[in-house]
Design a protein that fits this description.
By secondary structure, this protein is mainly alpha-helical. It has five helices and three strands, in the order ααβββααα. The protein has a three-stranded mixed sheet, with helices on one face. Bound molecules: zinc ion (ZN).
């Protein structure tokens, strides 16, 4: 698990590159996870995930907002999705934070990939290939 700030920063950088580039390649097969959706549709996904996982923390409030520096965020029980990030990919990323994974590290990516395969319908083999392409560590 990266603990030093430099490793943490590199991990985050690689993860963001993977998220912003990988799913737009591959013959656009995975564009459904980056397609912009309504708040209602994304809330339904959040409710489904929370209902399935039943974590002991309360379900976060989901809203659309400006974001911070154009990025979506999770904090204190609230997920705010920024313009251009109102998609399954970003929602599931923020849900992983809401589940208690504070940093972008190996446990985060493992939990994220589980959600992406189940709720984003991206096969794990595709996610693993992308992780390898973008140096996103899985162990
Ligand atoms: Zn994050």
């Amino acid at each position: 698990m990266p603990t030093n700030p430099y490793k943490q920063m590199m991990f985050t950088r690689n993860l963001y590159r993977f998220e912003t580039e990988y799913f737009l390649q591959d013959g656009k097969a995975w564009t459904h996870i980056v397609k912009q959706r309504s708040l209602r549709s994304l809330r339904q996904t959040l409710i489904r995930v929370w209902g399935d996982l039943r974590p002991c923390t309360p379900m976060p409030i989901l809203c659309f907002g400006k974001g911070v520096g154009g990025l979506s965020w999770f904090q204190e029980g609230r997920i705010v999705l920024a313009p251009g990030q109102r998609d399954l990919l970003t929602l599931l990323h923020e849900i992983v934070h809401a589940l208690g994974y504070g940093h972008h590290n190996v446990p985060f990516v493992k939990a994220y990939f589980k959600l992406l395969s189940k709720y984003g319908k991206v096969p794990l083999r595709v996610l693993r290939r992308g992780a390898a392409d973008y140096n996103v560590a899985l162990k």
